[in-house]
Amino acid sequence: MAIGVGGSTAEKELAKLSDMTADVQPITEAEFAARIKRAQERMAEEGVAATYVNAGTSLYYFTGTRWWPSERMVGALIPAEGGIHYIAPAFEISTLKDFMCIDGTVHGWEEHESPYALFGGLLTDLGLEGKVALDEACPFFLSNGVAKASPGTEFVDAKDIIAACRMHKSAAELAIMQRAKDMTLEVHKAAAAMLHEGVTTTEVTAFIHEAHKRVGASGSYFCIVLFGEATAYPHGVKNPQTLKAGDMVLIDTGCDLLGYKSDITRSYVFGQASAKQREVWNHEKAAQVRAFEAAKLGTRCGDVDIAARNLLEQFGYGPGYNVPGLPHRTGHGIGLDIHEWPYLVASDNTPLAPGMCFSNEPMLCLYGEFGVRLEDHFYMTEDGPKWFTKPSHSIDDPFGLAA
Predict the structure, then answer these.
(1) Which of 127, 248, 304, 343 could form a disulfide with 370 if both were Cys (CB 3.0 to 4.6 A apart)?
(2) DSSP code string of 108-174
(3) pLDDT by residue (tens digit) across 226-280?
(4) What separation in angstroms does the CA of 78 have from each of 31, 164, 238, 337, 389?
(5) Is residue 382 classed exposed, middle or buried when 0-12, 13-18 and 19+ CB atoms within 10 A define those classes?
(6) Residues of the chain with CATH 3.90.230.10
(7) Considering only CA atoms, which of 54, 78, 70, 59 is closest in space to residue 136?
(8) Global confidence as pTM
(9) Residue 51: phi, psi to the nearest 5?
(10) Which residues pair with 371 in a beta bridge?
(11) Does domain 10-23+168-387 have CATH number 3.90.230.10?
């Protein structure tokens, strides 16, 4: 049996866990204000008069206002100059103000009125002529409604403004993300230790949810637990599995801490690893290392994906996305959203720069047999990439407990 896998119980492992969030510092009002200023600088560079951010993670990123999207328009208009303006249903204004971190004028409409007409009138009243950028996360009904209500306005994608700000994490963001990942790694260790023959993926998922609570999260933000052949399919299969000796185990999970996400995957064998399992695991490990080594400042994000994929092809996988091999991108950005810009995929031309954060997970899938995914995250510093969490050590000691 691999070191740290099995041999304990759920009760014992939960008892070892404790709250890890006591000293975590939230994002300050000053940082939210600085984010707005940076967005305004980007707007000036892009010739954009204003940017609308819809309810969701971008609204929170710029204003500190936690509000989730629905069929009712809620968001903030950030002019290239001046203060911000909120849009909300009239009956929600008091609640919205209670959640606001950055003050601004709130414009409301009654249920029988059009928020899109209200928005268009606001643009006119503020003299925001020319281009107005819309949050790419706006649903079609909203962007369509706004465009029809203001036919004289040129609406453009706000990605070049929003993503340009959000993809570069501050020291405060990195500190929160570091703790969230530390928490999930401890949960991974506990989950591995409580495994026993006959346990189901459903039972392990429930354990992980409770374990995340013990370390200070509200539970698991998401959780994928797979045994045996099911590990070959990146996001799993519909039916639960029961653990047996010799099964590959794949657990992919994360939590939310002050809005920021963790996302870590570990793969190991319950029992004695076969020669093929060991070989594939080592190939996966090598590809993860190759991707990390390729992540140099100024390098295209896409070249990191290509570096990992080229190595795997030398081992006989692929080519390209063919299986046996790596059927998806090598990694994704992460922050307030579990998947966000930029991406470690061949087509992404974004140059790597300080503050960018990525998953590194060049998974190997052998359909009908098993799969191996080792997923850790790194962030770019002035000196190059730095791991948030220490990658899996070996198939025999996945958590480096004896290293």
Answers:
(1) 248
(2) EE-TTS-HHHHHHHHHHHTT--SEEEE-TTS-HHHHHHHHHH-TTSEEEETHHHHHHHHTS--HHHH
(3) 999 999 999 999 999 999 999 999 999 999 999 999 999 999 999 999 999 999 9
(4) 16, 15, 43, 21, 36
(5) exposed
(6) 10-23+168-387
(7) 54
(8) 0.97
(9) -125, 130
(10) 365
(11) yes
Q: Cα dist. 381→72, 352, 385 in Å? A: 40, 10, 6
Place of tokens 């870590």: 264
Task: Assess whether the previous peptide bond of 79 is cis (omega < 30° from 0).
Answer: no
CA 48 to chain centroid, in Å, comes to: 28
Q: What residue ranges of the chain are covered by domains with CATH 3.40.350.10?
A: 47-166
> CA-CA distance, 84 to 130, in Å (whole number)?
18
Q: What is the pLDDT of residue 129?
A: 82
CATH superfamily of 47-166: Creatinase/prolidase N-terminal domain (3.40.350.10)
Closest CA to 333 of 353, 312, 318: 353
The structure tokens listed for 22 are 């006591």
- 108: which strand partners? 88
What pLDDT is recorded for position 88? 98
The candidate with the shortest Cα–Cα distance to 341, out of 176, 196, 162, 207, is 162
User: What pLDDT, on the 0 to 100 scale, is given for residue 122?
Assistant: 97
Alpha-carbon span 380 to 358, nearest angstrom = 9
Instruction: Give yes or no for a contact between 321 and 377, defined as CB atoms under 8 angstroms apart.
Output: no
* Among candidate residues 330, 379, 403, 8, the one with its CA nearest the CA of residue 181: 379
**Model pLDDT, residue 21:** 98
Q: Tokens standing for 4? A: 């740290």
Q: What is the mean pLDDT of the chain?
A: 97
Q: What contacts 7, CB < 8 A, 6 or more positions away?
A: 1, 193
